[in-house]
Amino acid sequence: MKVQKYCSYAGSTMLLLIVAWLLYSEGRVEAQQSKSVLSTKEVKALIPQIERAERSLLNIKIESEAWVETKTKLSDPCEPWEQTPIYISSTAWFDGLPNSKARFDVHKEVLEWQEGAAPYVEESYSIGFDGHQGRLAKHTSGHSGQTHHIKTGKVLAEAPEALRTGWSNAFTGGRFSLYFFFNNDREFNLLSQFVSKITSAELVKLNSFEFTVEAFQAVECIKIDSTFDRQIARMTIWLDPSHGFALRGYELINTREDGSEWLVSRIRVTKLKEVCAGVWWPIEAYAESGPSRPGKPYRRFVYRASNVVANDPNFDEKIFTVPFRDGYLIDDKVRGVNYRVGQ
Prior knowledge:
Elements: E1 2-4, H1 12-24, H2 40-55, E2 60-71, E3 82-94, E4 102-114, E5 120-129, E6 134-143, E7 146-156, H3 166-171, H4 191-198, H5 201-206, E8 209-216, E9 219-226, E10 233-240, E11 246-255, E12 261-276, E13 279-289, E14 298-310, E15 329-332, E16 337-340
Parallel strand pairs: 7-15
Antiparallel strand pairs: 1-4, 2-3, 2-14, 3-4, 4-5, 5-6, 6-7, 8-9, 9-10, 10-11, 11-12, 12-13, 13-14, 15-16
Helix pairs in contact: 2-4
């Protein structure tokens, strides 16, 4: 069974390829002159402030839902976005560090089913990593409005891959936050590390990135803009210093060989909430992406958080160990055994 998981934003791999290209290419273009351009010294002074904001999150629980919408012409304001059956509701827990302990309880997930018995498949499952072992528990599966119990589980010696995908980083809200924007990247774990990297001597010499202050969605933001070669790719990030350097926006636009532009990702965080002192979490965000191939529509990923609790003093890290209920058939890859719980 092949299930296609969609997400309307660029994966981290694309971002890293662009950064690598910037690091090793030999050309350069001059930065656009602006009164709001920040100097390298001013930018470097921001790095410890961003680091302090990142360290302010110790643990978090997010209850959210998300879905995918489509439209044929992004530039047509009269054409409404149409909601597709692709949908997910979940409860997620993080320990405050990217690529660390996490757990997702997916209550309902509806995805396109490639070469399946129906256009869409519906599932519920739990996945987690407690710092030592990963666990997956599949609860239900089905299609056409009918699901049945699966009751299977798996134990792994590492974190399940499903915890680190762009899809999971989006439906939990991590992709729209300062804290987990780079959650599934291999080179950058934190946004402060990314800023430190792009202000390195080599990139400053190439004049590859520009930092300015500008109004974005009626909020004064720090804009990080790639200025290397706009004929190939443009990447822009907007951070809100008045709300703990929260992510407000992100864009990645590539240029095809024929000169046309391809919207890889456009993120807009439209609502933030201070879920505890100094911690601002996105509770409403959108991510748009261009057609995957000619004839396909634009996609918009819509994220909504209904309840967020951060830095709970009574947070119990045992939550990261997914429990197996009686009757579940377990494939234990660590011990090399199969067993049924309760027998």
